[in-house]
Amino acid sequence: MRLTALTTLLALGAVACGGGSKPDASQAAAAVPATANAAAAPAAPATEAVVVEVKMTGNGSTKAAFEPTTLLVYEMNGGPIPHIHGFPLRLIVPGLYGEKNPKWLTKIELLTANDPRLKKTHGCGFYKEQGWGPNFVVPTTSRIDAPEVTDGRFTQEIRVGESTELRGIAFGGDRGIQKVALSFDREKSWQETTIVETGTKISWSTWSYQWRPGAPGEYVIAVRATDGTGAPQISEERGTVPQGATGLQRVRAVVRG
Q: Is the pTM of the predicted complex or chain greater than 0.85?
């Protein structure tokens, strides 16, 4: 069947990879819900068929397959999805790391629970064999993007009494972002920022804060987000394996008089 003959939608979402604690991209994507009614689509020549073989048991619960935000994506930012991102078609399951969202799909097949093809014949899956798991859920993350940060420091000169706009993003997997806060006193207290763009539950939010330091010296600025469920970002440093990196970003700023 012709995939584009189904009801399509334009979705804004972010995908995070397990190698870091921040989302890699927030993209506008043309897609169809994974539960789209295929029976309503007209037939197309076999050479134009775009179908997918996905075993959802390997990438999340069966329930995830029926969430309206679970998508089959074929376009990104107004053009065909690039090969590196999964051309001709990829699955997006919000809240899971990009590595667990299958790319380069060519066939969709629905199987019953007792189908012998679901029986594992070797190993436990590529990422589990590499030491990942059992949780592949993206943790909440946030970062400071402006002023420019190089080697953990602001490159812009900051002066006492002058206002400097701090800006950045936050991402909560499939949970959205409730708020973002900054600390200027080594995390003893937190100042809430202004959410500029709330985004969606599956895309990042942008934030801004006007900082007017009252004294010269070196500051360590930390950023922390709270997701849509009210859970704060994990502050403890954790490496990539086995469940994805966590921790707070901290940026040094030298304020001159």
A: no
